[in-house]
């Protein structure tokens, strides 16, 4: 059940401060505000003969040449909402993807994670999961969010599966919500609440624990299973 409803007033909370340009460091990856210095790495990581699927559900891209990509990335780096972060590989410092905080609502203590684009080298890795953990932890524990949002094209099955795996709950569908690249977009909504964060945090940290991976780097217990267990425990 939701933690607030018309007959359950919310205690007074001051609006939170919007996300700032800071460094979020993990064991595998580090998130830093997007800067022009990251652009060459990002172009190399996200463009090539088979890059089109990476950009299929992004509002822009792929780009015809490095100059067009640079111009777009420089606009993103200068923006405050969305506030873009590059995802750096801690092994060599290369930027392998980006993500953003957006639709910031200080009075409602809500923020969305979006504009997630991970290169093939980052996709389906523990580092990618850690990048999402760092963002969520900062949203709940530093910003003081009550509500953390994930939205995607309803046709994007991978994004919907990722939302569920990460511990977001489905909220419904906005039909004919947008026209993106000349096509209709029905938007699927997901959220995570502050009351749910302790259990989600425990699942993230259990998954990311080095003991959860064998010598070849294969995960022993999936994050979706850990989140399933926390949900069952909460129901109990």
Written overview of the protein:
Helix 6 packs antiparallel against helix 7 (223-235). By secondary structure, this protein is an alpha+beta fold. The longest helix has 18 residues, at 126-143. An eight-stranded mixed β-sheet has the order 1-2-3-4-5-6-8-7, sandwiched between helices. Helix content is 33%, strand content 27%. The two termini are 14 Å apart. It has one domain (24-235): Gcn5-related N-acetyltransferase (GNAT) (Aminopeptidase), CATH 3.40.630. The radius of gyration is 18 Å and the shape is globular.
How is the topology of this model organized?
Layout: E1 24-25, E2 29-33, H1 39-46, H2 52-55, H3 66-78, E3 83-89, E4 95-105, E5 110-118, H4 126-143, E6 147-153, H5 157-166, E7 169-180, E8 183-193, H6 197-208, H7 223-235
Parallel strand pairs: 5-6
Antiparallel strand pairs: 1-2, 2-3, 3-4, 4-5, 6-8, 7-8
